[in-house]
Predict the 3D structure of the following.
Amino acid sequence: MANYETFAQGITRHFSGEKGLGIVIVFDNVDKRSRDQQLNIFEASQWFKDLTKALVLVNLRDSTFEAYRDEPPLDAFINAINFYIRAPRFAQVIRKRLELVLEALPNEVAKRQEYALETGYKIRYPASRLGEFMMSIYVSLFEKRNAQVGAMLEGLVAKDVRRALGMFGDIIVSPHIPTSQITGAALSAGSNRIPEWRVIRALMRGRGKYYSGKSIYVRNILWADPSHNRPSNLLMSDILEYLIRNRKDKIDFAQEKYALVETIVKKMGQLGYDEEDTFGAVTTLVQWGLIEPESLVTEQVKRDDAVRMHASGFIHMRFLLHRSEYLLGITTDMNFSSREVAEEIGNVWGSNTYSDDISLAAKRKILTKFHDYMRFEYDRRSRRHAFYAENGFGGKITVQALEKAVMQFNVLTKRISSGPQEH
């Protein structure tokens, strides 16, 4: 074909002029592209609109549009018709899918279903109730009385619908949630809720006995990368807390919440962190999905890229870090600067051969040792670097979270050891 432009004009003239049909051209998935590619595609779409006289739809990322709406080529269309399409909420996606299950499942599976409890008893039920049971489990996770768990799950997956569906399925089949609790939630129409700590454990450990750092939902934000020049267990938490505290500010980007990677590197440098280490930590946090680049390109993070806090990162700092199940769980995937601490914690976990859980006394011992170690690391950094005690908010929050967890276990241990009180 010699002339594509003439051909396109001829096609559109035929349908719109001779056939009397309106032509709509959609440039789809543009929001999945980098910032520069989005702007180039937008400019090309305007040229194509003038060429074909068609209605052209382009979906840009909201952050790109807001940041560059006053600059070419977007400034010429600032008064045009703009629609904002928000991703559906996690709970709504699950509910809609379950409604489809309710319709389709009875015809797709055997008429009678069966599974075994931990005790060996078998539960038999008609396939017509399978969808009903699934909806009851949904209610147990997302009802108002369990709002914190629902918010955690939604934050960890954010706008990723496929990941949301996978998470719900992983919770249901997790070996860390007893089938008796799944059954209780199903038979009670959701009134028997699955405990928060079990949901966290299921997401952290998957089908493994302990947390290994391989979970796609929950990450170890106190992990120290051994390849760094000066590894630190506090670096990631300090980066995340910096972005959280400045999420309503225009740092060095036209839109709120965004900061250049170079800015983060400099801010962490003021706290005594090595620049290469900080850049490596930001790259890891991007790959983990706790920080989101404006370009959405996660493979090759550059220092001039703008990044912001992802909902998952916020949940890790503001929710998971304050849960003893998370703090205990990540100790099986920690790099400690002290060999003694690593061996002591490892021996406690190693003494538990048969169960996926450990005793209350063992948990208390691990948390106490973990707290003492992190307190030492925080105090050492505060002594060595003048601004850390004042601005090392991530490290400060980490130590406070561990102090609270140890205190709770001390109270619980004392209450159990004292036994029932006579009045």
Notes: The longest strand covers residues 112-116. Residues 14-77 form one domain. Residues 393-418 form the longest helix (26 residues).
